[in-house]
């Protein structure tokens, strides 16, 4: 789950197996499901049992791989992926092409989720574009919405 995007059909089957195990399913008879599965799979502090949503868990693990590449760009995996898939650009700006490995496709799906939660620090200011970058957390778009003057 940490390297490949699990197909939705497999996720559904795994959830089905988990539900059957929880409710004590056997081939001869089915048991009464006393509580809705969504209620059971909710967070523990909200009264559920905390079963994970396998789709969300899969996406979180794939996002974690992207985070590792961002945080450790000198690792062997990061260097190989950079040479193969985003040699000329930035990891967060890479477009999905054709003829890609399943592992890279999974990481790319995780990057879309990672981008939603990323914020960055100014640092030395060399890579800042105040008109395009998302840097204002209090605004819904997180970037400047005011029209830019021509000579600015």
Task: Give your account of this protein's structure.
α3 packs across α5. The relative contact order is 0.10. The mean pLDDT is 84. The radius of gyration is 21 Å and the shape is elongated. Among the domains are: 8-46, no CATH class; 55-117, no CATH class. It has 5 helices and no strands. With 152 residues, the protein is mainly α.
Question: Notable features of this structure?
Answer:
152 residues
User: What Rg do the Cα atoms give?
Assistant: 21 Å
What is the overall shape?
elongated
Poorly predicted spans: none
Structural class by sheet pairing and helices: mainly alpha
Work out the helix count: 5
User: Percent helix among the residues?
Assistant: 40-55%
Q: What's the helix-strand series?
A: HHHHH
Q: What is the gist of this entry?
A:
The protein is mainly α and 152 residues long. Helices cover 42% and strands 0% of the residues. Among the domains are: 8-46, no CATH class; 55-117, no CATH class.
